Amino acid sequence: MEVTRLLWKCMLLSGLCVGTEWSLDGAELVPRARWAEQLSLSLLPPEPAPDPAHCSALLQEFANNSAALSRCLVTMARPVRLCQHCYTEYGQLRATFSRIGSPEQNSTVSCSTILLQSDRVQVIVALSDFFDELWGHSKCENCLQNNSTGILNSTSEFLDSFDSLIRCFNDTMREPPMPSQQGNFSRVCQSCNESYRHLNNLYKELEHTNALCIDLEDAMNSTRKLWSKTFNCTLPCTDTVPVIAVSAFILFLPVVFYLSSFLHSEQKKRKLILPKRFKSAASATNIQDKPN
Questions:
Q1: What CA–CA distance (Å, rounded) separates 19 from 11?
Q2: What is the pLDDT of residues 159-183, one digit of tens each?
């Protein structure tokens, strides 16, 4: 039926072109040319368009993913635990955004023209960029496995050590205070010293390998504040003795130099100046040696 209709249109168009005089000086040449152009464009197949129902479903899915990720980020803001608890929601958001820009199944068109490029504000693109920027500044990829499928073993080890140290703080604070100390802060320093050292060493190793994210940085910062300010504990530096020894040696070098120079000059003076008794003996010998 469609083919028959197209044939009739072609025959009508050809009949108009043959049965009518198309002189260059005719007044109806331009209107007829425009009509022929419009008719020829109407015969072209329409451009493929995405399925509105499919695009609407993707829009609703992106809205749900954005709400879930926002809720997780705000909930895990203090203390900061967003990398270890919100990577699933972030992955779902990225997957939905990727589906919006990808063609439908058995089709060559996507919903990007409707959802991403239909207005000046581009709300979906702006939201996606915001979440990507926040995730990038948090450096969460440093603590997650490939494709954000789970937490790295090094991250889990650090978090386990952190939880162990916090339990040590809490358990020691429940004990009765030492009678010779004000409060029980000194007991915390003694009981949790090894746990704190282990956590601090782990943090330095992760920092050296660029395996830190905002979760680990915030955990270590809060721990150091508790250790130094709340409990008034200090971690002795193992390099203190070598530094003091080298500094003392360098400071003592000028003293050794001037002392050796002074002793060396005095020794030369003693060699050059003879005692008086040697002088008198030498004079007497010279007198005896003179000829009579």
A1: 12
A2: 999 999 999 999 998 876 555 555 4
Q: How far apart are CA 227 and CA 224, in angstroms?
A: 5
Closest by CA to 158, choosing from 194, 111, 205, is 205
CB 58 within 8 A of CB 100: yes
Both tokens of 48, joined, read: 């493929």
Backbone angles phi, psi at 34, to 5 degrees: -65, -40
Q: Name the 3-class secondary structure at 112.
A: helix
Strand partners, 151: 144
CA distances from 193 to 164, 168, 186, 197, 225 (A): 12, 10, 10, 6, 15
CB proximity list for 250: less than 8 A, separation 6 or greater: none
Question: Is the distance from CB of 77 to CB of 215 less than 8 angstroms?
Answer: no
Write out the E strands in 84-183: none
pTM for the full predicted model: 0.65
Reported confidence tier of residue 40, pLDDT bands at 50, 70, 90: low
Give 183-210 pLDDT, tens digit per residue.
446 789 999 999 999 999 999 999 999 9
Tokens of 61: 């899915």
* HSE-CB of 189 using CA atoms within 13 angstroms: 16
Distance of CA 246 to the CA centre of its chain: 38
Rg over CA atoms, the chain:
45
Tokens 């803001």 belong to 77
